[in-house]
Amino acid sequence: MSLFTEPAPAFGSGSLRAALGDHWRLTDPVLKPLDSERDRNVLVDGRFVLKISNPAERADVVDMEVRALEHVHTADPGLPVPESVATRSGEAVAHLTDDTGRACLARLITLLPGVPLEGKPLAGGLAAQVGAVAARVSLALQGFFHPAAGRTLLWDVRQVAAVVAESGIGRFGELVARVAPALAATATLPSGVQHADVTLTNVLAEDGAITGVIDFGDMHHTAAVTDLAGTLTSVVRRSDDLWRGTEAVLRGYQRHRALSPDEVAVLGELVIARLLTTLAVSATRRDAHRDNERYITQYDDTSERVLAQLSAFTPAELGDRLARLAGTRDLATAVPEPELPARRAAAMGGGLSPLFYRRPLELVRGEGTYLYARDGRRYLDAYNNVAVVGHAHPAVARAVGQQLGELNTHSRYLHGGIVSLAERILATMPPELDTCLFTTSGTEANELAWRLATEYTGGDAAIIAEHAYHGSSKWMADLSSNEWPPGYRPPHVGTFAAPRDSVTTPAFSAAGLRPALVLADSQFTSEGILDVPAGFLAGLVESAHAAGALYLADEVQSGYGRSGPQLWRFALAGITPDLVTLGKPMGAGYPIGAVVTRREIADVLAGRYEYFSTFAATPAAAAAGHAVLDVLELTGLPARAVEVGEHLRRGLRELASPLLGEVRGTGLLAGIDVLPAGDVPSREVARSLLEALVERGVLAGLTGPRGDVLKVRPPLVWETEHADEFVARLAEVVRA
């Protein structure tokens, strides 16, 4: 007997009542027939459904359905699926004989509230609920195994070629050939036992909410994305707008189960395969089952319509549309490589926003200590401190993505994540610093610190290092002497000389000014990465207070563990600033910054103003911040940074070259003086070394007043072998 050709079970009302009484002690039940493709389903007393399987159905398949329901109830108790009602003998399945003498297996299951969504108006919100419940069922079946799941079904889209051929619909030959590569690709995608029929016929709803998922009769082992294809097909057949319906299903589905780019790439083709299967099964069965023709052919017209819409796109075009709706589109390939530099210059400010390196790099991927270009070349990253725990760290990416999937709104609402992040940061600071104000960047943090200082002190001037950098806004550009054009000097800014040549006492140049703030990058990174005597930083604090100003430690580049387990470079010097600013590494790629200060300072600004920044202190920013601190704390990266940094500088000092001078730095940070080569100025030599390193697969930077200091400021995940790799490549360059 064939499951799809054998007639449905034949039971009169008397036979049904007898079976219900004999096996479930139900006397004189009220019966109402329900639609079914190949089985016999009957509503019993408005409370149960009697499911009598097709005589051709295998006993192990029925057993699989029973056990799958039990598994789903255990895995996701809140998922509305039926429960089996045991027979008088305690079994889940009863053995019956229909009126034609054929043996059948029967089960009684609980009736769920609601009515099938098939044939009902389907707004976007309800379509999203369908996508969500499809994902939940797929996830709930994870870990479920049954030998019967390996069966072959007509509704398995992987059988579409055979099903279409058997149906005799010759006009679909090209489409069958088209979907073959996508079907083959499902063999390598996440798979398991799937419901395979979470469709509008089997999804119940009431008052705009889904109340049940029924009919596990098409379960089989397949890729999870083929299960989604069945759901999506069902929804878009009933949607007024194909793409709105698709977006809603994907939105709901991915709230529970994220799709991989590879899954999305084949999803459109799998929907086409499902539509072909629907039409082929209909053509095969309708002549043999004229009494059930309405049910069998109910999707023909809508399937033809959607099939025409989707097949009008090439596989690449269809895949691109779905990737854009699912959020898996690869933006790195959106613009052809040869056109990219010119298009960037035209659209993004030209010389106002220059690129690194003479031959611009198009980077498409990062992993740990390495960055990868479109051509596949790998580059050791010796420059980017933003990715403090390594590029694309899964813990950070997952934490931010999960939070974005739940909630991301501004800080006018309470959220425990951001409060606890503030508490964690304060716990790393001196006890006097008891207030944490979040921003979106180091620039914004320094701007807020400037406002706090001017309001608290009544001053209107700032004292900075002679070649400092503190941000890119107008205010911070004025406080970034390293960025000043020739001849420019803001009247409200004084300077002090950085600690060079054993200078241990700071000397201000602030005649006629009323200083509100003295600020310094604790490692003097823009000055050439200096080894700062502790007494110098202490002198800055003392001199600031003597002038009536506050002292700000800018830890954006030198903090977050780069100088060691104490996390902050100022702490290594044993000083307590009035303000500390944080940025770049806080979120390892997610924009976040902070000002840490004393409450008395914050209260003065609060007396006249409020501080609010829409994207500061969001739950997603908090998720990134927590993930970064977790990795730093649990893996001991700051302590290892000290060891690797010492190893790096030791190797650099052993490079005997007339092109290289002094090597400086604390923790995982190094500044290497580059010397002139004959008549070639040191700045040009440094630029040539930098470009030559890039050609050898290493990314570094330049700093210092003359731009002749090679800057090594890598992610903290560097190991000694990365330091050795950098030294080896630099050795090759200076020899050349």
Uncertain stretches of 5 or more adjacent residues: none
DSSP helix fraction: 25-40%
Structural class: alpha+beta
How far is the N terminus from the C terminus? Answer: 80 Å
The percentage of residues in β strands lies in 15-25%
Shape: elongated
Multimeric organization = single chain
Number of helices: 23
Strand order of the largest sheet: 15-22-21-20-19-16-17-18
What's the mean pLDDT score?
A: 93
Explain how this protein is built.
With 736 residues, the chain is of the alpha+beta class. Helix content is 39%, strand content 16%. It has 23 helices and 27 strands. The chain has an eight-stranded mixed beta sheet, with helices on both faces. Helix 4 (160-167) runs parallel beside helix 8, helix 5 packs across helix 8 (261-285) and helix 6 (224-237) packs antiparallel against helix 7 (242-254). The longest helix is centred in the middle third of the chain and has 25 residues, at 261-285. It starts with 12 loop residues before the first helix and ends with a helix.
What would a concise description of this structure say?
This protein has 736 residues and is of the alpha+beta class. It is built from 23 helices and 27 strands.
